[in-house]
């Protein structure tokens, strides 16, 4: 029998447009704020683990005193419909990044989150990051499923689920594109 979920994934809900996935240049990082402000109240809670105000989002996006994040976006024209952020600094070791991800409500469950995770993991590996941490609310089934697909191990801390994705270093031949098993 056809799985209706899979069928839906082949047909993004917002017409025939297919988002383009790419890293945002630092000058484009301002797009993140508009994207996060467009999330529904429920998705905002899931993204940040609690209800947050527009002012909080503004401050979060200013990223004051922290290294610049790496941000990949799913873009429809110049509008972001999904984002994955790799954030650094603040009490976390240098080879660890914190991952935050969000897909706008109309675009959820169409495979964009999976594509954003793929691209973020590849970039993290290429930049020598050994571990990705993702924190989310325990009832966030979509995020649990998404991180599970990328080999996460789970623990629970202060009411949040912490997913740890270990990234073994690729050998030189893999980085260079060799298809030979290593
Ligand atoms: C979590 C989130 C990023 C997933 O993005 P997405 O584009 O919907 O993900 P995908 O379509 O690639 O689906 C990923 C998996 O989750 C499952 N899934 C998606 N939405 C789901 C839902 N509402 N309930 C249960 N499972 C769901 C999919 O079936 C898929 O699993 P499969 O490949 O085994 O079929 C998105 O739901 C979101 O932005 N949520 C709000 C913000 C948030 O929760 N961020 C996480 C904290 S940083």
Automatic annotation (TrEMBL):
Keywords: Transferase. The keyword Metal-binding does not apply. It comes from the Bacteria. It holds the Pfam family Acetyltransf_1. InterPro entries: Acyl_CoA_acyltransferase, GNAT_dom. The keyword Transferase applies. PROSITE patterns: GNAT. SUPFAM superfamilies: Acyl-CoA N-acyltransferases (Nat) (SSF55729). GO terms for molecular function: acyltransferase activity, transferring groups other than amino-acyl groups. Residues 19-181 form the N-acetyltransferase domain. This is GNAT family N-acetyltransferase.
């Amino acid at each position: 029998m056809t799985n209706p979920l899979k069928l839906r994934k082949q047909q993004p809900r917002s017409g025939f447009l297919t988002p383009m996935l790419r890293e945002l240049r630092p000058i484009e990082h301002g797009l993140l704020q508009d994207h996060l402000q467009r999330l529904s109240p429920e998705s905002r809670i899931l993204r940040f683990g609690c209800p947050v105000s527009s002012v909080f989002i503004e401050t979060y996006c200013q990223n004051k005193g922290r290294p610049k994040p790496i941000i990949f976006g799913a873009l429809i024209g110049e509008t972001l419909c999904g984002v994955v952020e790799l954030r650094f600094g603040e009490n976390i070791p240098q080879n660890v990044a914190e991952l935050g991800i969000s897909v706008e409500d109309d675009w959820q469950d169409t495979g964009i989150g999976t594509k954003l995770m793929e691209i973020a993991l590849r970039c993290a590996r290429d930049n020598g990051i050994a571990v990705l941490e993702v924190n989310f609310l325990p009832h966030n089934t979509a995020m649990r499923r998404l991180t599970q697909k990328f080999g996460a191990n789970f623990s629970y801390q202060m009411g949040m689920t912490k997913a740890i994705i270990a990234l073994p270093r690729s050998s030189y031949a893999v980085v260079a594109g060799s298809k030979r098993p290593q």
